[in-house]
Amino acid sequence: MIKGTRTVNGKTPFEQKWGISANELAQQEGVGTPAIHMRVNLYGTPFQRKAKPTNIERKYGATIFELGKQLNLHPISVVQRELWFGDVYRESDRPSHNRGKSLKPEEEKKWRKHYKDVFWLHENHPDYDRARAGNWGEDDA
After folding, report:
1. If you ran DSSP here, which 8-state letter would residue 118 be given?
2. What is the pLDDT of residues 49-78, one digit of tens each?
């Protein structure tokens, strides 16, 4: 615990409210403690990572990287399928020279640096299961 932090029964007010200390959550997420406090300021909960999900996360309940690994496709191919066909699971009838090409380890490192492969909600968020099921957005636009 940080020196000078007020506690009640050994727990900070943050820990009393959310059930986990900001430092522990920050270590789990790989971010700084101020980022966790900023989430509370912006979204009202430390378990929400972004303001809203991407269209693909909303529709399929998975990130672009997760769908790419599932379909053995490059993340760009996943996005292109969604744009061209409206469904990432639909395959083109045209022959493709990129079929079966997924991210190489060095590409994956670069992509993950620029585009975080984290779902927009943390597992402890109350709506996590609903969002992962792809039921987000029908009534919440």
Report:
1. -
2. 888 888 888 889 888 888 888 888 888 888
pLDDT value of residue 122: 79
- The reply to whether 68 falls in a domain is yes
The answer to whether residue 89 is domain-embedded is yes
Distances from the Cα of 114 to the Cα of 5, 25, 53, 62, 69, angstroms? 34, 22, 17, 18, 18
92 close to 78: Cβ distance less than 8 angstroms: no
pTM, two decimal places: 0.66
**Which residues form the domain of 14?**
1-46
Contact, 60 vs 67, CB < 8 A? yes
Of 115, 101, 102, nearest to 54 (Cα)? 115
**Alpha carbon distance 31, 38 (integer Å):** 11
